[in-house]
Amino acid sequence: MQYIRRANERGTVDLGWLQSQHSFSFGHYYDAAHMGLSVLRVINDDIVQPGRGFDTHGHQDMEIISYVVSGAVEHKDNQGNKTRIPAGDVQRMSAGTGIMHSEYNPSENEEVNFLQIWVLPEKKGLPPSYEQKTIEQQTQLTALVTPTGDAGSLSINQNMSMHRLVLGANETFTLQSQLGFGYLHIVKGQLSVDKDSFVKGDAFATSAKEAIKLIANSDLEAIWFDLPSQV
Q1: Model pLDDT for residues 68-86, shown as the tens digit of each residue
Q2: Which is the most buried residue in 42, 73, 97, 210, by most CB within 10 A?
């Protein structure tokens, strides 16, 4: 492992209606040691209170992925998309030349927890686009986002992929990047790699050709990013 990011060391934001933890520099949180990895620029772990959310705002030339952990997110944009994203669903929005959207927690009594993930685009200036899918777990490591939408995954304007890793307690798995860098972010549960232990919100990166054998210490859900070595 060449980089470890601990959950309790992330940047924090508390606006009352929003509690957010930033894995990388974002907004008012800046740390030169944590600017992203390869084309991966943002992982915000957001908890939004019932009936609250992000008012209409704009993005340009960014690939934005939402992964809902619990609850549901209501999405609306100026391209005519109005959808509800329940837990387990994955959404990809390519901002391209510019898009305006809002994100709300439609529940009257339940918080929503979702990961907001930003990836640099391979090509700029493309028309905005939107995808959302329920992707069932097919194997321990299941593709959620790929460059060409392989195996029922969402597509993305970048040479990277995002997978969901699901293991039962005491199961093992070996991770290895196929592109250059790997990055594992734990959504639920805990795991061990050699003598290191990792819990919910922790993450680590692997270098090219490095195979990492991990052991799930409990039921585990994590997101695995396979990223190019050059941006």
Answers
A1: 999 999 999 999 999 999 9
A2: 73
Domain count for the chain: 1
Give mean pLDDT, residues 176-189: 95
First to last CA, the chain: 20
- Tokens 């704009």 locate to 58
Domain containing 104 — which CATH number? 2.60.120.10
Range of the domain at 106: 3-228
Radius of gyration of the chain from its Cα atoms, rounded to whole angstroms: 17
Q: What is the pTM of this model?
A: 0.96
